[in-house]
Design a protein that fits this description.
By secondary structure, the protein is α+β, with helices and mostly antiparallel strands. Strands 1, 2, 3, 4, 5, 6, 7, 8, 9, 10, 11, 12, 13 and 14 form a 14-stranded mixed beta sheet that branches. Strand 2 and strand 3 form a beta hairpin. Helix 6 packs across helix 12, helix 8 crosses helix 9 and helix 10 packs antiparallel against helix 11.
Amino acid sequence: MSKYKVKKVETGQEMTQFIRFSEQLYAHCPYYVPDMESEIREYFDPKSNPGLDFSSIQPFICVNENGEVVGRIAGIINPVANQTWQVKNVRFGYIDFIDDIEVSGALLDAVAEWGRAQGMTRIQGPLGISDFDKEGMLVEDFDKVGSEVTIYNYPYYPKHMEQLGFQKDADWIQIRVDVPEEVPERFSHVSALLKKRYGWRVHKMTTREIEKEGYGRKVFQLLNEAYQPLFGFSRLSDRQVDAFVKKYLTLVDLNLAPCIVDKDGNLIGIAVTMSSMARALQKSKGRLLPWGWYHLLKSLKWKHEDHVEMLLIAVKPEYQRLGVNALMFDDLIPVYNRYHFKYAETGPQLEDNEKELNQWRTLNPTFEKRRRCYGKDL
């Protein structure tokens, strides 16, 4: 008889246990960056998460004989993504567990059973509801600090996945580049050429444009177009778009988020970047109170960290490979120097997305923090 029991999270107390398990598990890990506790609660609340208008989600916890939590996981079914890719996948996310194969196996079996009962034929993850959720289990570089938009996990996690019969479905990597003191000639030349020949230019959004004039929606409509071919893509609904506008665009320093527009002012590209909040989140332990708000606000507004996170970069499909990114870098590099950023790090990029990866060659990139989506037939 197993000494562990997996149960559905159904009460407020169990949700608190689900959320705070990772705090216990990574209490002495200097590389782990916690999620905001309030954001996790909102993620599982249909009133707060518009992705749950059409998706199903079920969190689970695993407890030992003493009732102590030893693991957690969430099962997710996104019918929009399944229809887009013509699959019947149940996704798993928020997976954390002690180094015991019985625990990890029981958690994944719980999601598999939950998905199978709803007609799913494959389990896949770590993934979220949308492409803007954290995804991919870390499989390399466990000794590097994570970020606010990525998953960190211990080295034994992927070992468990392989032992349990899961296989690679996709890999993401992150790109790190040192911020040059001057804009590389290739970028400045292409930028000047595009401005002169086509009238393309950099536009910095204003808060009024975002909140009152619908510019934030334009940004995420562009992201819907640009990300459509990518692994696991699920088109964002209008309510999701509005939620992400509030989550990202109302927080970022708009000097760090250049839009590229054509001669008529139509949006054709966007880069959303922000000062890293990793250290601030570590200090706050994922909570705003009592002093978490101070660390986060200090990182965002008062004293920037030494590096910048390049959260989102996208170009309308018909303008890709035409040098639009040169305009972004031509604008951002001088700003990064004024802010005293030493290096920039992207979010996870699919390893086979050559268009995305090639844009970094001029900046002598290093590729690190490989993450993996695992899959297994049910």
